[in-house]
Design goal:
Helix content is 48%, strand content 10%. It has 84 residues and is mostly helical. A two-stranded antiparallel sheet has the order 1-2.
């Protein structure tokens, strides 16, 4: 998953359980921020909050941003179970 996966502790715990690591770990969300191109924005928010953040930053791209996240949710259900 890479380090960004740890912005979603529940998903990491689920994946560890699926690969046979059954111990319940005390995972904490890692927070990432983007500081580039004149922007300073969080990049590891829960999905609904990230959609809102992107909507505010890029109002012209709202439809595309919404479509992208809808597709990602649909794909994640097929790979990791229902979104949390």
């Amino acid at each position: 998953m890479g380090p960004l996966g740890f912005s979603n502790p529940a998903m990491v715990q689920d994946i560890l359980h699926q690969v046979g690591i059954g111990a319940q770990l005390d995972l904490t969300r890692v927070r990432y921020h983007l500081h580039a191109f004149g922007l300073e924005t969080p990049m590891s928010l829960p999905c609904p909050e990230m959609i809102e953040e992107l909507r505010l930053l890029f109002p012209v791209e709202e439809e595309g941003t919404g479509s992208f996240h809808t597709d990602m949710k649909r794909l994640s259900v097929h790979t990791t179970g229902p979104p949390r």
